Amino acid sequence: MSVLVYTENWDGKFKKLSFELVSFAKGIAEMTGTSVTALSIGNVDAEELNKLGNYGASKIVEVKDDRLNHLINGAYSSIISQVAEKEGSSVVILSNNNTGKALAPRVSVKLKAGLVAGVNALPSSANPFIIKKKAFTGKAFANVKVKSDKKILTLNQNSFGVKESGGSASVEAFSPSLNDADFKTEVKDVHKVTGKVLLTDAEIVVSGGRGMKGPENWGPIEELAGLLGAATACSRPVSDEGWRPHEEHTGQTGKIIAPNLYIAAGISGAIQHVAGISSSKCIVAINKDNEAPIFEAADYGVIGDVMQVLPALIDAVKSFKSEN
Amino acid sequence: MKILICISNVPDTTTKIRFVNDNTAFDTNGVQWIINPWDELALTRALELKEGSSGAIEKVSVISVGPQSSEPTLRKALAIGADDAIRVNAEPKDAFAVAQQLAEAIKDEGYDLIISGIESSDYNGAAVGGMLAEFLGIASVSSVSGINFESGGFQVKREIDGGSEMVAAQTPFVAIIQKGVAIVPRIPSMRGIMQARTKPLKVVESSATDNLTEFVDYELPPAKAACKMVDPENMKELVNLLHTEAKVL
């Protein structure tokens, strides 16, 4: 018996979200009286692997294979399933990020394990297994009962938090059995943007809407984001107009994010936009229309012209940074 | 070549969400049902590919699992331009059951590319596409933001953290798409709406009903405290509040 958590790596390194996943797995293991096994696929050095022990993993299963340098859904989900079988895992946990969304459904079918995607907290009951997830794109929550013996959960990023438990883990190498049928996709070309804060990882996000009036006015958004170490985002009309790239579109049909601070500049706050940002810990809205629905979602509001408020906010942040 | 789009019938994205029967059921009263936004983009892109393929892509089909009341959504897909439609006559219980039902309905139909939206805007399972690929034993590529048809094969663009990859997949495969494959969904023309009435819509029964999860009940997010207004002339105060009160700076 164990709780298995798949900890993805980025160029051999884990992220905060990896530690959050292990912390969450530890919480489930405590509820069900078992321990946490973490699965790592790819080249991660011993020092990095050992970090997982600090968040509650007691065992780490390591798979290395040069064919696995890029995500291959067939092969990766096969490995996760094999390790889950070997470890007798009753619960398998992945992130609700691109990778988790790609793999969890396939693992679910392989293990005949009920999948609950996008959970935020520990189950309210372990037997029957009932856990809360987001539904209607953040407009509601659903309590879902998993009827199968095995369960798969994907955790929303920045929802559970990181909890150090101060343990250490043993590392065991595993050679999965893979065949050609697991390798039906091939990456031909990779295009990477470096040096930008990823929207999904960002603790602070500065976002602009149609109230910014045009792409030429994005200077203050980028300057403020730079000062705060934040990612930049935008509303749907802005990406539809081509003012900003689609990767920045935040909302129901774009990216769903949960940063600690979300600053919405010139965004009116349509229900679809709010659905994508409502899990943010703190929302600041800047809009000249005092009836804009964004103020219903916001914690702090500033009624004014973004072109005047943003430079003032930048100055205030600069003097705050110099004092702290 | 044949392309299939999996369609989910969902409440309009502007719907105010309410629940009935002691919060155990979604209140469908007055709800407008639409094609799941991502599925609509998938259909739009499939039609563009077909039109640009000089006949190499012969057909774009749509499929949905749902009761008869969901048929208008399939008819809308036909009006947008799909050639034919399949409805699996069953109440969609969970992603696992739906994927099983879809797999059963299409396993002998010979589709080369199956496209599903990354998730449905109601239950947000992000699961049917991947599960369907696994049930059919074929490849899947997720987070797809572009699909091209070149020299007889499909190439997809996959979003990764901080960038993208071009991926070649052996057909048949499932592409699980997000925004980017198309930007603006195609809307039905008057001629399309007329034609849709006579396009084939096949209803198939399903024996597979293996749901592994069950929605017990629902809750709405807790009401938010009122927004605290800050004087636009006093951004120092805002920064101070974010630092000392919200503790996010």
Please indicate the count of domains of chain B: 1
Uncertain runs of chain B: none
H and E string of chain B: EEEEEHEHEHEHEEEEHEEEH
| Beta-strand residue percentage of chain A | 25-35%
**What's the CATH topology label of the largest domain in chain A?**
Rossmann fold
Strand count, sense and barrel status of the largest sheet of chain B are: 9 strands, mixed
- What count of helical segments of chain A does DSSP give? 9
Largest interface: A-B, 99 and 87 residues
- Count of beta strands of chain B: 15
Sheet with most strands: strand arrangement of chain A: 5-9-4-1-2-3-10
Given the helix and strand composition of chain B, which structural class is it? alpha/beta
Question: How many domains in all of chain A?
Answer: 2
Fourth-tier CATH superfamily name of the largest domain in chain A: HUPs
Low-confidence stretches of chain A: none
Coarse structural class of chain A: alpha/beta
Query: Order of strands across the biggest sheet of chain B?
Result: 11-10-9-12-8-1-6-7-13
Give a concise summary.
The complex is a heterodimer of chains A (324) and B (249). Chain A has 324 residues and is α/β, with parallel strands linked by helices. Chain A is 30% helix and 27% strand.
